[in-house]
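Hey, can you fold this one?
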Amino acid sequence: MTDNSNRLPTTPKPLFALGQVVATPGALHAMTELDFSPLALIHRHATGDWGDLGADDQQQNLVAIRSGLRVFSSYKIGASVKIWIITEADRSSTTLLLPDEY
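Sure. Predicted structure:
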């Protein structure tokens, strides 16, 4: 079985605007160390694959998209490394960060 979690899929289309995409130094360092593509995570976030969120949080993201609220994703990319992605309610920016950088 092949792990495709680090590949850019060709579909589906983004569900919302990302605005300016930025990443903290800690998130960039972690992704570089683990050879994990930030673009793959951004694509997953924008297309509704919110990673390791429970059903309630995923439902909240659907409401957020329709209502113009903040959209949140969480991805485990290593044994003990998580990357959070947050798109602001006004869709002006999307940030990749480590949980302890919040």
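The radius of gyration is 13 Å. Let me know if you want another pass with a different chain boundary.
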